[in-house]
């Protein structure tokens, strides 16, 4: 697991499908929504994207800056702009159910890991939580937008970078 600071020079517009959840809900199989979100994305949308297309899991609309508050997650892919996402997504199945979200330009602390999903992404998030809960944590989370970047769109085995927005 490595982490580094990255400056995102410009915003990234994404289109995808969304759910609202909490960390507490994700603990129980009965109430967890993230696995079902990604399963639906994989079954209905991933195959429609060009091979090797990067995939993004965008976390936003945080209710609070602790682990108890609700937040939205969008399983998505990059589009040219939010306007293009709304008008040009007709070629992707179920386009009417898509939402658009913008990943803002700014400073992020990035936790990278490679391996089998979903364990790899869960381990990357665990490292992020451990870092930000440590007493000697050097950075402050913004709780505006965080995101997972699945390099080359591989949702089974590959590299994932978890970007945490920082001040």
Written description of the protein model:
By secondary structure, this protein is α+β, with helices and mostly antiparallel strands. Helices cover 22% and strands 42% of the residues. It has helices at 23-27, 34-44, 82-87, 119-133, and strands at residues 2-8, 12-22, 55-60, 70-79, 99-103, 106-116, 141-150, 157-166. The chain starts with a strand and ends with a strand.
How are the elements arranged and paired?
Elements: E1 2-8, E2 12-22, H1 23-27, H2 34-44, E3 55-60, E4 70-79, H3 82-87, E5 99-103, E6 106-116, H4 119-133, E7 141-150, E8 157-166
Antiparallel strand pairs: 1-6, 2-4, 2-5, 3-4, 3-7, 6-8, 7-8
Run of helices and strands: EEHHEEHEEHEE
Strand order of the largest sheet: 1-6-8-7-3-4-2-5
Shape: globular
Count of alpha/pi helices? 4
Structural class label: alpha+beta
**Largest sheet entry:** 8 strands, antiparallel
End-to-end gap: 22 Å
Global mean pLDDT: 89
Low-confidence stretches: 85-90
Residue share in β-strands: 35-45%
As a whole number of angstroms, the C-alpha radius of gyration is: 15 Å
Query: How many strand segments?
Result: 8
Helix content: 10-25%
Quick structural overview:
With 167 residues, the chain is α+β, with helices and mostly antiparallel strands. It has 4 helices and 8 strands; from the N terminus they run E-E-H-H-E-E-H-E-E-H-E-E.
Keywords:
167 residues; alpha+beta; 4 helices
């Amino acid at each position: 697991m490595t982490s580094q600071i990255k400056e995102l020079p410009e915003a990234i517009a994404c289109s995808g499908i969304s759910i609202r959840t909490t960390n507490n809900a994700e603990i129980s199989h009965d109430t967890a929504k993230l696995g079902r979100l990604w399963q639906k994305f994989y079954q209905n949308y991933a195959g429609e994207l060009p091979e090797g297309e990067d995939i993004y899991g965008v976390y936003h609309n945080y209710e609070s800056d602790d682990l108890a508050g609700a937040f939205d997650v969008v399983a998505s892919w990059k589009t040219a702009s939010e306007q293009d996402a709304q008008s040009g997504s007709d070629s992707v199945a179920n386009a009417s159910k898509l939402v658009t979200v913008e990943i803002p330009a700014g400073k992020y602390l990035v936790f990278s890991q490679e391996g089998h999903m979903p364990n790899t992404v869960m381990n990357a998030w665990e490292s992020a939580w451990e870092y930000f809960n440590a007493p000697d944590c050097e950075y402050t989370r913004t709780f505006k937008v965080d995101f997972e970047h699945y390099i080359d769109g591989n949702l089974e085995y590959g590299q994932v970078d978890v970007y945490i927005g920082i001040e």
